[in-house]
Amino acid sequence: MSQELCPVCCASSDFYFEEAGRIFHTCPACSLVFQTTDTLPASEEEKARYELHQNDDTDEGYVRWLTSFINSSVIPWYKQGSVLDFGSGPQAVLTDLLRDRDYPVYSYDPYFSDRWPEEGEPFSLILMCEVLEHVNDPAEVFRRLFSVSAEGAVISLKTAFLPSSGQVGDFKGWWYRQDITHIRFYNPQSLKVLGENSGWKLIRQDGKSLAVYEKSSPHKGAL
Ligand SMILES: [Zn+2]
User: Fold this and answer.
1) 43-161+183-215: what fold?
2) Strand 22-26 to strand 14-19: parallel, antiparallel, or no bridges (unpaired)?
3) 28 C-alpha to center of ligand 1: Å?
4) Considering the entire predicted model, what is its pTM?
C-alpha cells in the first residue's frame, strides 16, 4: 500500500475504504478522507461528468437550491467589493443569479472558464458552492485565493461534511461519495486545518455542509 500524504496537512495517511477501483485514505492528523492519486478519474472523464450535470437557469429546482445558498452563504457575508464564484461550472448559473442582484461577480472554473479574472481589485468574498469536494489540491487553491483576496476577505463554501460517526460503514452508504468526481471529504476538523495551513481562519461551520473563513492577518502560512 503506497504511503500517500494528506492533501490538506501532508501527514501520512491510512487506508480507509475501497470500491470499484476507487481507493480512499483517511488522515489521522486532520480526519480528511480522500481518494488516492492513482485511482482518481481522468480529467476527460471528469469533464464529461460535469457536462452531464445539465444544470442551467431553466431548471427551477437548481435555481431554488442556488437561491438558498445565496440566502445562507452570500447575503450574510457580503459587505462590499468584488465577489469570485470559484468553480462556477459549465453554465455559471450562480454568477448569473448574483449579477441579476447587482453583485459585482466574476467566475472562474478550471474546466469551463479557465482564464483567471483580469487583474483588478482583490476579491472581498469568494464563493465555492459544491466545489471543494472536487478539488485535488485544496491547500494550493486556498493559498492562491489568499493572494487574490482583500484584507478581511471571506470564503463562504458548501460541501457535505463526512458522516459524523467516522465509521467506514456510514461512509460506504453515503450518497455523496458515490459521485466519481467527489474526491475529498471534510469534517470541521479538516476544514479548520485547511484554513490554518493557508492563511484562512475558520470562523463558522454548521456541522453539515456550510463553512466560512476569514482571511488571517498577518499571514503566517507558507506563501
Ligand atoms: Zn490531514
Assistant:
1) Rossmann fold (3.40.50)
2) antiparallel
3) 7
4) 0.92
